[in-house]
Design goal:
Number of helices: 1
Distance between the termini: 36 Å
Shape: globular
Number of strands: 28
Helix content: under 10%
Largest sheet: 13 strands, mixed
Order of helices and strands: HEEEEEEEEEEEEEEEEEEEEEEEEEEEE
Oligomer: single chain
Radius of gyration: 24 Å
Structural class: mainly beta
Length: 397
């Protein structure tokens, strides 16, 4: 019987869509947070701890807790911010407390997924110990969530390498985030062997870079940001390839982009990519501009292809500036918008806009997401037309 391997699927999809594979750099994640004594993290009363060790060869998650009912039945669950019911979360493990009301679990996350689903990545989720008899959480804590949810004495080390947008791009870019038990954090970006020049570092899709680096002749540069950069350090000289400063953002799990002349050359989430655990991370998308037909006066569009964070293939088309109305979306001559046309309407900003988005496994949390049940990829012709009149088109690279 074959076993589903997210890593293999992700690689296959990326190749099929013409996207670059991960560079295979060192990926590492080590996190430790205390458990608190109810389902409202933040009171600082530790009753145990959660910790993980993720590398390219392992994904170990440990749970240590005390104060449980001896012999009681419990579950370790993970849920997102919007999930209020513990049972809405995902089951990581079930256990029985020992005679002292304690538990010490060491879970191999790579062995917890069934044949049709990937293992659970606990990072960014609320991890709770659910009391089966009471039907409620008794302990919980955010695990590598947002900085406002950090429990006292948490420790984090997250190292990952960004992917080049173009497979021919030279050099590499690595990122690292650390948090000490005293709450002080550090974020670093290191460029090695890239094409010499000026690069902007962007986080979480913000148009304003957090810093601009100018490499040395070898194509190397480094950015070091800390929540407490200290005083009187350094010679006072500004070096474009080695900059230090204040860390005023929370980069964890956010998209990090390195741009040159406004074009993204490296990108990826500030989250270590662990084989068979979260290979797709925050997903990998390619955006291709569409061309306006010469017979039309105005309008623009773009096609998005790739995979989402669950390794599912995605496809989307967004247009703007076209006359308001319903349009047909064609892929290789076939209308894929039958029943759900591409509707262009007033965007509230003095213009018009419309969008259709498809996913191999539509998410109920994403209203309007349509099933991707047709073939699309490199070489596909994507067209936007109305009553047989062509407005926008592109052949995917």
């Amino acid at each position: 019987m074959s076993v589903f391997k997210p890593a293999a699927l992700a690689a296959t999809l990326l190749l099929a869509l013409g996207l670059p594979l991960a560079a295979g750099a060192k990926e590492e994640s080590k996190i430790q947070v205390p458990l608190v004594d109810d389902s409202s993290p933040g009171n600082g009363m530790g009753d145990g701890k959660l910790q993980s060790t993720f590398t390219e060869t392992q994904a170990t998650f440990q749970v240590h807790a005390k104060g449980l009912v001896p012999g009681g039945s419990y579950e370790v669950r993970a849920r997102d911010l919007e999930a209020t019911d513990p049972l809405d979360g995902e089951l990581i493990a079930a256990f029985t407390a020992d005679s002292n009301g304690q538990v010490n679990l060491q879970i191999d996350l790579l062995q917890t997924g069934d044949e049709m689903s990937a293992p659970i990545d606990p990072r960014g989720k609320l991890i709770s110990i659910y009391d089966v008899a009471l039907g409620e959480d008794v302990f919980a804590s955010w695990f590598y969530g947002d900085v406002v949810n950090d429990e006292p004495h948490s420790k984090v080390k997250e190292v990952t390498e960004l992917d080049p947008v173009d497979a021919l791009t030279q050099g590499s870019v690595s990122t690292r985030y650390d948090m000490k038990p005293n709450g002080k954090g550090a974020f670093g970006v290191q460029l090695q062997g890239v094409a010499p020049g000026t690069y902007d570092i962007h986080v979480d899709g913000n148009l304003i870079p957090i810093e601009t680096l100018i490499t040395n002749p070898a194509g190397n540069a480094k950015l070091s940001l800390r929540t407490d950069p200290g005083k009187g350090k350094g010679s006072g000289k500004v070096q474009g390839h080695n900059k230090k400063g204040m860390l005023s953002i929370d980069p964890r799990r956010k998209l990090v982009e390195v741009k040159q002349l406004g074009v993204v050359v490296f990108s990826g989430p500030m989250l270590a990519q662990i084989p068979d655990l979260n290979d797709c991370g925050m997903g990998a998308e390619t955006v291709t501009p569409m061309l306006l037909d010469p017979a039309q006066l105005s309008g623009s569009g773009e096609v998005t292809t790739g995979v989402d964070e669950s390794c599912d293939p995605i496809f989307g088309v967004a247009v703007s500036g076209l006359p308001a109305g319903d349009y047909s979306l064609l892929v290789d001559g076939v209308d894929v918008s039958v029943g759900t046309p591409l509707t262009v309407a007033d965007d509230g900003l003095g213009g018009t806009a419309g969008e259709l988005r498809f996913d191999a496994n539509p998410d109920a949390a994403e209203p309007g997401e349509l099933p991707l049940d047709f073939a699309v990829g490199s070489g596909s012709v994507v067209e936007v037309e109305q009553s047989g009149t062509l407005f926008l088109s592109v052949t995917l690279p």
